[in-house]
Design goal:
The protein has about 550 residues and is of the alpha/beta class. It is built from 23 helices and twelve strands. The strands form four sheets. Strands 2-3-4-1-5 form a five-stranded parallel beta sheet, with helices on one face.
Length: about 550
């Protein structure tokens, strides 16, 4: 029967342990000097070598012919420990033996001296699974065991252990193994097996191994079983159910350009090849991470496992895409991935996520026909916007002794149409005298410019958002749910659309005021107003109502477009 690679190539000495040099140094020095402790706690993520190190330590204290700090590996005791038949090394799975009765049996067996070796070693794996009663039963024995007994506790969640247990053990934390060490270790294994594998394929396996030697070797085992003696990058991607970096470069470009239809078609092609939806989201998040790191790190290729060609494409893409867009995309994809874990239709969730990303968070911006939208209009990119220009109202040259004095009506957000010549003529005939149309003040609060201060609030707000987002990633909350509507003599007014944004704006009021002072030269207080959708809709109708009232007074029709 085939034996898994992580079992076949399990290290037999400290020299074979990857990425745990700090632990190897401590344990080897203790074995060399004869100062090993009575209780150890090995902590760390899965597959980092906790159980393997415990077995090597058991060999070191029971080896019949040790070579310095290394067990010989050939004596009777070493071979028995390797095969798992050594009577004085007892391995206990706390996940299935977690009761008080199990610990009582352990306490009874501790009383008996070792049968063949010098030291009796108890390796308790997943020790955090013990019940509180079991922990209490173990305390006294763990603190003062017989001189010939050693306890090695292993866990992935040390925070679940009682403080009384932690204080009685020498704690050693196992680190995640770096991708470089994983690649080098797997390359040696492949060479010993006569398997040819590319560096890019090894890099993908190491990246998906997530710092775990066991997980990496399990993936490698699957790839060898699927591809045989020659493993390519494509073979690895097929086994993992993931796609290459070039696919995510295309997807990212499509959503950034608002090409939702193209992105959905590409997604369908990827999934039709058998890719798993959740894994696809994880890999896409990793791609956005690559874009983020490329923006801030001088040599990102040292951290990213991509080819030179794709690295250049990632570097070019990171220069085009604003950091706020990267931030929004990561958060939206992460939220979708979390929801997909409990959904029976994860594909639909991902498709909706793509539509949100392509529309900048506003699905109404997408055209139903082409499903194409310029995402730049709704993201944090700098865009020069045209200022609205009011159209002057032309005077009508009537055949009267005195021409009517018609003053200009300023344009507002609802675009009040200028009075036509016919309307003025009709008004003159009804009134029989000069018609004096007074200037109508701006009815809305959404104008690009506040007349009394001469400050372009929209431009100022864009600058504040851009600088704020560069300092705080959470500042983009204001981009989605707040707007600067006025800058007055003593204060500035923000309108927010929900309670979350209101709370965030108030918590950061001082910071927003500082940014505003930087661009306006004024020290102003913030007036933050919560505006619901009904009120906004009412404000949008105010211009129409105003035009109706004005027309009634003048007995003319004023159209609003």
């Amino acid at each position: 029967m085939h034996q898994a690679l992580y079992r076949s190539f399990r290290p037999e000495t400290f020299d074979g342990i990857l990425g745990q040099e700090h632990i190897v140094k401590i344990l080897s020095n203790q074995i060399r000097s004869g100062t090993t402790g009575h209780a150890y706690l090995f902590c760390g993520t899965r597959g980092t070598g906790k159980t393997t190190t415990a077995r090597i330590l058991a060999k070191g204290v029971n080896c019949m012919a040790p070579q310095e700090y290394r067990p010989c590996g050939v004596c009777e005791n070493c071979i028995a420990i390797r095969d798992g038949v050594f009577l004085d090394v007892i391995e206990i799975d706390a996940a299935s033996n977690n009761g008080v009765d199990n610990i009582r049996e352990l306490r009874e067996s501790v009383k008996y001296p070792p049968a063949a070796g010098r030291c009796k070693v108890y390796i308790i794996d997943e020790v955090h699974m013990l019940t509180s009663g079991a922990f209490n039963a173990l305390l006294k024995t763990l603190e003062e065991p017989p001189a010939y007994v050693m306890f090695i506790l292993a866990t992935t969640e040390p925070q679940k252990l009682p403080a009384t247990i932690l204080s009685r053990c020498l704690r050693l934390d196992f680190h995640r193994v770096s991708e470089k060490l994983l690649r080098d270790g797997m390359r040696e294994i492949c060479e010993s097996l006569g398997v040819k594998i590319s560096d890019s394929a090894l890099g993908i396996i190491a990246a998906n191994g997530d710092g775990s030697v066991r997980d990496s070797l399990s993936i490698l085992d699957q790839c060898i079983a699927a591809a045989g003696k020659e493993v390519t990058r494509k073979d690895v991607l097929d086994v993992l159910g993931t796609s290459g970096e070039e696919v995510f470069i295309q997807l990212t470009d499509m959503v950034d350009q608002g090409k939702a239809a193209d992105a959905l078609l590409l997604l369908d092609r990827i999934l039709s090849e058998g890719k798993e939806v959740r894994q696809l989201m994880k890999d896409w998040i990793a791609h956005y991470r690559s874009l983020m790191l490329t923006k801030f790190i001088r040599n990102p290729e040292d951290l990213l496992n991509v080819s030179e060609e794709n690295m250049e494409r990632i570097r070019e893409q990171s220069m085009r895409i604003h950091m706020s867009s990267i931030n929004d995309s990561i958060l939206d994809l992460a939220r979708t991935l979390s929801e997909a874990k409990w959904s029976t239709q994860p594909r639909i969730l991902l498709e909706l996520c793509i539509l949100r990303l392509a529309s900048g968070g506003n699905l109404e911006n997408l055209s139903p026909g082409s499903m194409s939208h310029d995402r730049k209009k709704t993201t944090g990119k700098k865009i020069e916007k045209k200022k609205k220009e009011s159209e002057p109202v032309e005077k009508h040259s009537a055949a009267l002794d005195v021409a009517p004095d018609v003053k200009q009506v300023p344009d507002n957000d609802t675009n009040i149409k200028k009075l036509t010549e016919t309307d003025i003529d009709d008004a003159e005939q009804v009134a029989g005298t000069d018609v004096d149309v007074e200037q109508v003040p701006d009815a809305g609060t959404d104008s690009d410019q506040v007349a009394d201060t001469g400050i372009d609030v929209e431009k100022i707000w864009d600058k504040i958002l851009e600088e704020g987002e560069s300092q705080k990633t959470t500042f983009n909350v204001l981009r989605r749910g707040a707007r600067l509507v006025a800058v007055e003599e003593n204060c500035f007014r923000l309108e927010v659309g929900n309670e979350v944004t209101l709370r965030y704006a108030k918590d950061n009021a001082d910071y927003i005021s500082q940014l505003l002072e930087k661009y306006t030269g004024r020290a102003l207080k913030m007036d933050c107003v919560l505006v619901d959708q009904d009120r906004r809709a009412q404000e949008e109708k105010s211009a129409e109502e105003l035009a109706c009232e004005l027309g009634n007074c003048l007995n003319i029709n004023i159209e609003v477009k």
